[in-house]
Amino acid sequence: MNTCKQIVLAVTGASGACYARRFLERAAALEGVAVHVVLTDTAREIWRHELGCEPPVGLDDRRFDAPFCSGSAAADAMVILPCSMGMLGRIAAGTADDAIARMADVQLKERRPLIVVPRETPLNLIHLRNMTTLAEAGAVIAPAAPGFYTRPADLDTLVDSFVARILQLAGIAPLAAAYQWKSKE
After folding, report:
1. Prior bond to 143 cis, omega within 30?
2. Secondary-structure breakdown of the chain: helix, strand, coil percentages, each rounded to the nearest 5
3. Contact at 8 Å (CB) between 69 and 38?
4. Are 60 and 41 in contact (CB under 8 A)?
């Protein structure tokens, strides 16, 4: 029996490729975790623009025979990081018109963890209603809003702290003490 946790990292066309890259690096380094990446075409363009490098090779977002598109092959957890409002809306509406939306639909119907990281501001009423729909269906909505209470020294540390929280929400790594709230003593 395979005891390796199967994690899907879906990257959509929203700004925030630095989060996706760091999640992939951290999750792939964990023992007993297999990360499967799926990117939209727009995500690939944004990755190149924001990070100045080629995105990872991943599953084809246009293929419905991709792994994890069936309830009989649901992932242990799925993280959509970052999640565009277009993708969030399609998932909330149940359209499942591409592999990412279908995989998310499978996660919800199979009652498996789905962590959605929207990266948009400001939010309009449609965004808020779509997020509410997904939360009511069982998804965790974790906006890309890192905490500053850890007093991050630089952007990399800020990204690390947020990604650590997403790894915890996905159930694949405990939150390191460095990223936990500490009150003044």
Report:
1. no
2. 40, 15, 40
3. no
4. no
Query: Cα(114)–Cα(100) distance, rounded to whole angstroms?
Result: 11
Domains and CATH numbers, the chain: 5-179 (3.40.50.1950)
Give tens-digit pLDDT for 110-158: 999 999 999 999 999 999 999 999 999 999 999 999 889 888 999 999 9
Helix intervals (H) in the chain? 17-28, 41-51, 85-93, 99-109, 125-137, 155-169
Q: State how far the Cα of 73 lies from the Cα of 132, in Å rounded to an integer.
A: 27
Closest CA to 89 of 20, 166, 12: 12
pTM value is: 0.94
Separation of alpha carbons 27 and 52, rounded Å: 22
